[in-house]
């Protein structure tokens, strides 16, 4: 069986809006009101949405 290249990064997570489980990664974006992305984080599917946002704000200058 061939393993995916994401085997060390991706995780199983649950999407409440679709009521199903998925395997993969989550992209978290911090954008301006005009829609310009100013920061991002890539996490496993089980990650809490609040923690990556705090880390984006901590790493990027105001």
Structure, explained:
- With 62 residues, this protein is an alpha+beta fold.
- Helices cover 16% and strands 40% of the residues.
- It is built from one helix and three strands, in the order E-E-E-H.
- The chain has one helix spanning 50-59; strands at 11-15, 20-31, 37-44.
- Strands 1-2-3 form a three-stranded antiparallel beta sheet, with helices on one face.
- A hairpin with a 5-residue loop joins strand 2 and strand 3.
- The longest helix has 10 residues, at 50-59.
- It starts with 10 loop residues before the first strand and ends with a helix.
- The mean pLDDT is 83.
Helical content class: 10-25%
Report the order of strands and helices. EEEH
* Beta-strand proportion: 35-45%
Average pLDDT confidence is 83
Strand order of the largest sheet: 1-2-3
What's the total number of strands? 3
Low-confidence stretches: none
Helix vs. strand class: alpha+beta
Radius of gyration, CA atoms, in whole angstroms: 14 Å
Overall body shape: globular
Largest sheet: 3 strands, antiparallel
Q: Total number of helical segments?
A: 1
How far the N terminus sits from the C terminus, by CA atoms, comes to 47 Å
Topology:
Layout: E1 11-15, E2 20-31, E3 37-44, H1 50-59
Antiparallel strand pairs: 1-2, 2-3
State the gist of this model.
By secondary structure, the chain is of the alpha+beta class. It has one helix at 50-59; strands at residues 11-15, 20-31, 37-44.
């Amino acid at each position: 069986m061939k393993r995916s290249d994401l085997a060390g990064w991706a995780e199983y997570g649950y999407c409440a809006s679709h009521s199903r489980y998925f395997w993969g990664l989550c992209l978290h974006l911090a954008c301006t009101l005009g829609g310009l992305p100013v920061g991002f984080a890539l996490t496993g599917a089980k990650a809490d949405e609040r923690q990556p946002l705090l880390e984006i704000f901590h790493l990027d200058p105001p």
